[in-house]
Amino acid sequence: MTATPEKERAIPELVAEVYETALPSDRGHMLEQLLRPLGVLSLVAIADGIFAKIRFRGGWQDLSVRLEDINNVQGAHIVALVDHAQQVSVAAVDGLASLVLASPGLSGSAAAMVLVGLLLQRSRQGREGQAAISIRPNESSLDP
């Protein structure tokens, strides 16, 4: 079982809302979390390449988000980034829940708590779905 399409569409918007109200250090951590799993083509294709510039400036292995990067990234860029990141690595987006909960500045907003709830729910549903898939073959082998 996966999250409903409405929830999948809500997550990028919520991440953008949380990003826009976050302190610069938290914004940087959010960007790093979302950028790490994405490849070159993804980064170039999203938001007119703004994220490729961030990623390549320090070299591929050294992801370092600067204050100027944070100031250049707008909510619409985050929506596009999260939307794409969900298709590539749901775990990267779901990892934002831990990041939000660990930051006093982030965890104080209502949007952040709604986001955490959705991410945790999706993560839980994904684990349950994986467990059901791995259990089914054993169940069918028990049939006479």
Task: Characterise this structure.
The protein is mostly helical. It is built from ten helices and no strands. The radius of gyration is 17 Å and the shape is globular. The two termini are 29 Å apart.
Which terms summarize this structure?
144 residues, mainly alpha, 10 helices, globular
Q: Categorize the overall geometry.
A: globular
Taking pLDDT < 50 over at least 5 consecutive residues as the criterion, the unreliable ranges are 131-136, 138-144
Q: How large is the radius of gyration? A: 17 Å
Q: Note the beta-strand portion.
A: under 5%
By helix and strand content, what is the structural category?
A: mainly alpha
Count structural domains: 1
Order of helices and strands: HHHHHHHHHH
**If helices are DSSP runs of H or I spanning 4 or more residues, what is the number of helices?**
10
How much helical structure, as a percent, in the residues? Answer: over 70%
**Main sheet attributes: strand count, strand direction, barrel closure:** none
Write down the overall mean pLDDT: 82
The count of strands amounts to 0
